[in-house]
Amino acid sequence: MNSATWSAVWLTLQLAGLTTLILLLLGTPLAWWLTRTRSWLKGPVSALVALPLVLPPTVLGFYLLITLGPHGPIGQLTQSLGLGLLPFTFSGLVLGSVLYSMPFVVQPLQNAFEAMGERPLEVAASLRASPLDAFFSVVLPLARNGYLTASVMGFAHTLGEFGVVLMLGGNIPNQTRVLSVQIFDHVEALEYAQAHELAAAMLVFSFVVLLGLHAFKPRRPS
Questions:
Q1: 3-state DSSP assignment of residue 38
Q2: What is the CATH number of the domain that holds 69?
Q3: Were 164 and a residue from 22, 61, 87, 212 both cysteine, which residue would form a disulfide, CB within 3.0 to 4.6 Å?
Q4: Confidence (pLDDT) at 94
Q5: Is residue 25 situated within a structural domain?
């Protein structure tokens, strides 16, 4: 692999790692709220979280490009704050990736929180544990498999993004050219051998990740 390919690999790993970390931090309180709330907002918020599962990534990328652009509300805000514009930057890629990969992190966490039921929290409350203490000492350990699934799925899904990153980040070497875009470049240039090399590596990686995730899932007692 040449230097351009290694740069795309490193940029992709940075993007996937940072996106996964942000999603775990943001997704934990969101998934917990969706699990516990009785508010009418639960339905609309759940639909918004799951929207990237059915929405074409180019649609999401397009509207992010408009919203973050010089005439969009967020773009005007970032410019007024002296932060510049987010499209065609690594920061813009991170924002787009967080939104696009959100359901792959929030939903496994929500499923893990719902699976534990009310009993562990009731026991913690009977021992005079505060809600915050109960969450860190009871909920998080019981939801560790959910966190494993969320981390792996969020990371792997971000690695394979194409539509959002191309629309929002473009194809700038060493800044926004990730692996999926690098493969596209090779195909456009009729460099099928190089495209096959990267595509096969991502295929094997994705299969191994899903196989490992399945192997580590606890078996239900018969």
A1: coil
A2: 1.10.3720.10
A3: 61
A4: 94
A5: yes
